[in-house]
């Protein structure tokens, strides 16, 4: 019994201790770690049967690097933004002023007034000033409005500084529109547009009118120019013309101001100079000087002395031979000797195997010039010029700005050649001597246009003008061989122009021999090509390509249109339908007349 009671006591004691025991609080992190370990154990057990799926969080995390990095504004951008804000502000003020809804200025802030001694005397003086009668408006002097002063202010530390904005209304200057494949760089066009604007502002009272005129002038100059050099020449001439116009406008304004001032004077008062009183009206309009020979008057060029003045510009026999002019062959009458330029290394075409002058391809023809193989000619119609691009010198074509390896930009039906070996020295005529001085002292300028035939380049048009720039002979010529290509881009001759033409080369030679003598001076640009087309031998020649040489020397020659743009500020050969022989002949005569006058000024 005692053993049983002892066992029951022990059981009750253990039960009491168990019921009184309170478990200690465990850390949440430990519980989480235990739970995560248990979940991992369960996941490992169930990995064979189930696939683990990632949990998509709902919290939007912010990239601290992206938030911390901010774009820093450059000083140029800050100035540009400030100018834009100022222009926008000026436009808004202008709109408010035009509508009459400008808000009234706010009341000025209170100012501190310094102590003034003797206030009673100051107040009495103020009352006396008020009692005085104001002067009439006509007697008051008109004062120009004073510009508002700029107050220099400083800000306290930590306050953002604000840039001062001017009170003058500023209109944004126009810019050149951006185009693809510009003939002239955009920076150069914008620079010269600003120069034109500076001159137009002097002419017009309104900036808007000046900007419109400047944009129109620059656009016209750009449309007339084919390259950068020509654009510079044209724009410089435009600026000179605008400066002259500005001086005329200024002189006109001054004259109008003087007239207004004279009308305000009394009509019975007349001012007379001392010179007018002593010598009368004729003496007042005459200038006298004790140095009569100091300023030499410019000598005018007349028909009588033009022939003598052109003598120093005549080509020598050596220059005629070096430039490829046809010279008479003493061994065979009717044939010419043409010196080839060895520097060009030009391949020559034979009777059956010829070389295209446009694309350089070889093609075969029969003895009569009939094409054996008819192929299209893919070529560049412009010339290849060396230019500095991105610091390096590259050769590009003027027609499409392509390099030497680029495919041609023009397509013709057939290949062509300019001359055939053996055919270019036959059928020449020589100008004859004359005893009549009237014909021997004549001066003419001529130019020819040629087209491609089965036997090379042949004459299709000729124009001859006199010293008065009037045409004396002009006609279309029918070649002796069939025409393959009219070369309209450069000759200006079309198929419609040649309908009904029956004048032959022999007819033209007869007219020229009757009009010219061996002493007649003929003026032209690269006349050797014209003489070859005319089959004419003449020695009294003035060639503008020799008078105005190229800076690199022969065999390089300057184009006639560049000479006219540089020296006479004229644009020629700008028509879409090709060149005009009359225009080229007149240009050659004008160049030589200008050259003579300039040399007379220096002498």
Account of the 3D structure:
The chain has 603 residues and is α+β, with helices and mostly antiparallel strands. Among the domains are: 186-261; 306-336 and 429-602, Ribonuclease H-like superfamily/Ribonuclease H (Nucleotidyltransferase, domain 5); 353-412, no CATH class. The protein is 40% helix and 11% strand. It contains 18 helices and 16 strands. The protein has helices spanning 2-20, 28-46, 64-68, 75-99, 119-131, 186-203, 207-224, 228-264, 274-284, 303-309, 317-322, 437-440, 488-491, 505-515, 527-534, 544-547, 560-568, 581-602; strands spanning 327-328, 336-337, 353-355, 362-364, 377-379, 384-389, 392-397, 410-412, 429-430, 443-453, 456-465, 471-476, 483-485, 521-524, 536-537, 541-543. Strands 10, 11, 12, 13, 14 and 16 form a six-stranded mixed beta sheet that branches. Strands 1-2 form a two-stranded antiparallel sheet. A two-stranded antiparallel sheet has the order 3-4. The longest helix has 37 residues, at 228-264. The N and C termini lie far apart (163 Å). The relative contact order is 0.06. Residues 137-144 and 288-298 have low confidence and may be disordered.
């Amino acid at each position: 019994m005692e053993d049983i009671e002892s066992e029951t006591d022990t059981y009750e004691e253990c039960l009491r201790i168990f019921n009184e025991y309170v478990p200690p609080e465990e850390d949440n992190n430990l519980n989480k770690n235990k739970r995560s370990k248990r979940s991992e154990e369960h996941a490992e057990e169930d990995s064979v049967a189930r696939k683990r799926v990632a949990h998509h969080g709902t919290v939007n995390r912010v990239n601290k690097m992206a938030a911390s990095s901010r774009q820093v504004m450059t000083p140029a951008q800050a100035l540009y933004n400030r100018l834009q804000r100022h222009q926008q502000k000026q436009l808004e003020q202008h709109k408010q002023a035009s509508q009459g809804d400008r808000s009234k200025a706010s009341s000025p802030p209170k100012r501190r007034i310094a102590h003034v001694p003797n206030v009673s005397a100051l107040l009495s003086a103020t009352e006396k000033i008020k009692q005085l009668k104001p002067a009439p408006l006509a007697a008051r002097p008109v004062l120009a409005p004073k510009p508002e002063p700029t107050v220099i202010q400083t800000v306290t530390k930590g306050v953002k500084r604000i840039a001062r904005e001017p009170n003058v209304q500023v209109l944004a200057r126009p810019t050149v529109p951006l185009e693809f494949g510009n003939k002239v760089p955009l920076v150069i066009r914008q620079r010269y547009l600003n120069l034109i604007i500076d001159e137009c502002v002097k002419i017009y009272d309104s900036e808007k009118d000046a900007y419109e005129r400047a944009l129109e002038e620059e656009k016209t100059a750009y449309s007339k120019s084919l390259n950068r050099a020509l654009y510079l020449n044209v724009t410089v001439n435009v600026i000179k013309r605008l400066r002259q116009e500005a001086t005329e406008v200024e002189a006109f304004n001054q004259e109008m101001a003087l007239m207004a001032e004279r009308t305000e004077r009394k009509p019975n008062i007349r001012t007379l100079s001392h010179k007018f009183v002593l010598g009368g009206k004729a003496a007042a309009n005459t200038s006298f000087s004790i140095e009569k020979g100091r300023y030499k008057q410019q000598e005018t060029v007349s028909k009588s002395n033009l022939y003598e003045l052109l003598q120093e510009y005549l080509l020598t026999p050596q220059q005629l031979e070096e430039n490829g002019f046809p010279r008479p062959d003493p061994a065979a009458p009717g044939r010419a000797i043409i010196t080839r330029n060895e520097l060009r290394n030009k391949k020559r075409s034979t009777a059956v195997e010829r070389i295209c002058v446009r694309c350089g391809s070889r093609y075969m023809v029969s003895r009569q010039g009939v094409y054996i193989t008819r192929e299209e000619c893919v070529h560049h119609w412009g010339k290849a010029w060396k230019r500095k691009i991105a610091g390096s010198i590259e050769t590009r074509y003027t027609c499409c700005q392509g390099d030497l390896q680029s495919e041609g930009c023009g397509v013709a039906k057939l290949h062509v050649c300019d001359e055939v070996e053996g055919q270019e020295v036959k059928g020449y005529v020589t100008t004859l001597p004359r005893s009549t001085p009237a014909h021997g002292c004549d001066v003419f300028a001529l130019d020819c246009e040629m087209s491609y035939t089965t036997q090379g380049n042949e004459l299709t048009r000729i124009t001859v003008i006199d010293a008065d720039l009037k045409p004396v002979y002009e006609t279309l010529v029918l070649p002796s061989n069939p025409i393959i290509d009219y070369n309209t881009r450069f000759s200006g001759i079309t198929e419609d122009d040649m309908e009904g033409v029956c004048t032959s080369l022999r007819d033209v030679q007869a007219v020229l021999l009757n009009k010219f003598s061996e002493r007649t001076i003929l003026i032209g640009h690269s006349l050797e090509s014209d003489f070859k087309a005319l089959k004419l031998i003449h020695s009294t020649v003035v060639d503008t390509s020799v008078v105005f040489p190229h800076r690199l020397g022969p065999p390089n020659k300057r184009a006639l249109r560049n000479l006219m743009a540089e020296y006479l500020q004229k644009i020629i050969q700008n028509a879409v339908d090709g060149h005009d022989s009359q225009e080229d002949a007149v240009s050659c005569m004008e160049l030589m007349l200008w050259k003579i006058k300039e040399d007379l000024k220096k002498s």
